[in-house]
Amino acid sequence: MTTVAFGGGPNLDQRRSFAALRDGTHVPGYRGYCPQIKYRVGKTYGTDTHELAQDTIHLQPASVLASAPEGLRTTKNVLPMATGDNKYTEKMIPGYTGYIPRMPFKFGNTYKEDCDFCIDEYMTNRKFNDTKTMDLKRQVAGYPRLTAISHDPEVRDKLNLYRDTHPNRPILMDDKRALTEPPVPGYRGYIPRIKTTEMGLGARYNRTTKRGLEMFAQETAASAQRITGTLPASIERVPTDVLQGSQGDSSKRLYLTDGMIPKYTGYVPQRRFAFGNTYGDTTRGLEVCAHPLNSFGDFKRSRTSVM
């Protein structure tokens, strides 16, 4: 190693004397950021950077070869020694391709100097955050634990009084929800039949989920009766009209036999491949609208069974 960082080769003053660089001058070919350089034309790169350094007297000269002021880059921590397993050490060598915190924002120094400063800054911030975390844990541990409100005798007495005066009304979530009761809008869980059938089209969330749950309860009850001849316990509370099925819901078709209304913006299968007719005539001639059954799924199943 004959670099300046490791004590070999000429020092900075000797290099500046050899290159005859004036104060604040960048070496031509420097790719770092130089303020206001893009607004100057007509002079060499060295002259422009020298004049910019003289004009911007309130800033430090931005030269690559300029040495850092005393105390500006002193490290606060003892950087870790290399053990073969640790990542950030005191002797980072050029060519290391791993990530170093804050390294992309450092310019104008040797690789080792920037590495040492970034590692020191990272260790300082980590120690500060660890101290804050430990202080917070100690504060939380020092406070008394909260007592559950159910242990309060006043709450217990009021709940007992409510139960005595309202024997038929549930307290909190004492009773289970009905099987076909729709969930609250915003519920992200799975609702059967609303995405695989026509039950989930063209209605509000409350109505869509109610129809999907009722259809699922109907199919479950029908399967249970077909297998065992009796209803399962979870289906016995479902209203009779749900178990028997609602003709209005199950026979409601999305694609009507008399065609779709013009300006309908939904998807119509095979519509994009039909030309030369009005929208109504085109949709009436499509298979999805022309079949006589309750839904297109039933029509497809009937054709499959025939084949």
TrEMBL record:
<feature type="domain" description="Ciliary microtubule inner protein 2A-C-like">
    <location>
        <begin position="91"/>
        <end position="115"/>
    </location>
</feature>
<dbReference type="GO" id="GO:0015630">
    <property type="term" value="C:microtubule cytoskeleton"/>
</dbReference>
<keyword id="KW-0206">Cytoskeleton</keyword>
<comment type="similarity">
    <text>Belongs to the CIMIP2 family.</text>
</comment>
<feature type="domain" description="Sperm-associated microtubule inner protein 5">
    <location>
        <begin position="175"/>
        <end position="217"/>
    </location>
</feature>
<dbReference type="GO" id="GO:0005930">
    <property type="term" value="C:axoneme"/>
</dbReference>
<dbReference type="InterPro" id="IPR055215">
    <property type="entry name" value="SPMIP5_dom"/>
</dbReference>
<dbReference type="Pfam" id="PF10629">
    <property type="entry name" value="CMI2B-like"/>
</dbReference>
<dbReference type="Pfam" id="PF22573">
    <property type="entry name" value="SPMIP5"/>
</dbReference>
<protein>
    <recommendedName>
        <fullName>Protein FAM166B</fullName>
    </recommendedName>
</protein>
<dbReference type="InterPro" id="IPR018902">
    <property type="entry name" value="CMI2A-C-like_dom"/>
</dbReference>
<keyword id="KW-0963">Cytoplasm</keyword>
<feature type="domain" description="Ciliary microtubule inner protein 2A-C-like">
    <location>
        <begin position="260"/>
        <end position="284"/>
    </location>
</feature>
<keyword id="KW-0966">Cell projection</keyword>
<feature type="domain" description="Ciliary microtubule inner protein 2A-C-like">
    <location>
        <begin position="25"/>
        <end position="55"/>
    </location>
</feature>
